[in-house]
User: Fold Major facilitator superfamily (MFS) profile domain-containing protein from Penicillium steckii.
Amino acid sequence: MSELKCPDSLKEPTVTAYSVNSSPSLSPQDEKRLPTPSSESINLEGQTKSSPPYHVFSRSRKLQIVCIVSLAAIFSPLSSNIYFPALGEISRELNISMSLATLTVTIYMIVQGIAPSFWGSFSDVIGRRAIFIGTFIVYMIANIALGVSTNYGELMAFRAIQAAGSAATISIGAGVIGDITTSAERGSLIGIFGGVRMLGQGVGPVFGGLLSQYLGFRAIFWFLTILSGLSLFSILFFLPETLRSVAGNGTVPLHGLSKPFIYHFTGQKDAKPDSVPSTEKKKVTVKTVFEPLGFLGEKDVFITLFFGAIVYTVWSMVTSSTSDLFESTYGLNTLEVGLTFLGNGFGCISGSYTTGYLMDYNHKRTEREYCQKHNLPIDTRITTKTHPDFPIEYARMRNTWWITALFIVCTAVYGVSLRTHLALPIILQYIIAYCATAIFTINSALVIDLYPGASASATAVNNLMRCLIGAAGVAAVQPIIDAITAQYAFILLAGITICMVPLLAIEMRWGAGWRLERSERLKRKEQVV
Assistant:
């Protein structure tokens, strides 16, 4: 595989060098190679006084766009979670074992992991709108086919196609946010993005249980068809193209498929006739499709993604085993099982939402510490592009330790809690989901920070690792529970997570140095080219 081409935003080193109070530091040799701009050259958002804004959209306009892409991204978790309460009915109606019924979740997760790697690459080249529209059409067709499916083979095949259509919405949505935001404001918007889309985790199983109980499991897919049609309508009418090689910072006039229907009536108010994108548009090639896989060869990126994937897998194993465990342990019907997923769902929503604002607070806190250390005005807004030695890893990860510890403890006692009142495992599911989603949100923001010029592709690779490892976990959870009981199964999962904790320390200690090496390597390659 050929080397990755450096995104425009990475042509300057983006590395952590100096310690910020308790933050980790680089070696003296690395520090000598890092320039620090003077305070005179920096204005709000870390830009020079003469430079144009990173994006012309107002905060309220950015929130509108985030809401549109968040509602679109609901369908990836919703399509998976709305299905969980119906597994028992599917097993009975199609006359298959629970393990085979669970494999329809596994195939969904496998395709959910693979598909965004391709869609994300295309969206970083062609544009966000075109891929959004195309994937939604695929998704709607798959749901219609699932609604009339009559056997297990059809269910498996069209679940895979359904995943191919829905999974890309998360990586493309993250790409849109990366297009229009700086690192200082990105945390809260990523949190909102995660919180809104995780609404599917909260209400999906309730709707799934209700529809399956009274109308049959196929009604779930007709419900998804109608909802996805409404989301596609909002994209067609209100979502402008944001890819910076097409739309620039929002001032480039949009045409054709890049132009939302609403602009035909209101006009593009921020457009300037002579404005052109500052980033050159790439061509779609085979290399473009597979290029994001090269991100996994970067040590800091791999460690970040692998730790997040393990947490995702453990959480997925807790979630996917809920239906069978609660039916057999507490004698619940399909609707009642769906209601028990509310704890998990609202844990996801609150975890993403609060962590987004926590990251913004931590970013500002680290900025203040950095400014004090370097004698800069206290209100200077810092980015890794303008201040390459800003410790972005530390700013993002400074709360990961206690979140991970709480996740491990709750996972360990979850299996034992199934011997008690139903309320306790539901409460533990809330905490497990809260902590898992908090870690996902931190990981997502950090990956976008590491590759801001290819945010959709980077998020797709994040999704790839999570879903492939998660699919293996979901396929294995029922046999593990059958072999050693639920009590010891979840203690085992907690132990596996403990073994992964050193990865956090490795990233905090050496991640910045690896990022420096990558930046210099890519810079040398650009000079040769």
The first helix runs from residue 28 to 32. The chain has one domain: 55-239+282-292+321-377+396-528. The two ends are 18 Å apart (CA to CA).
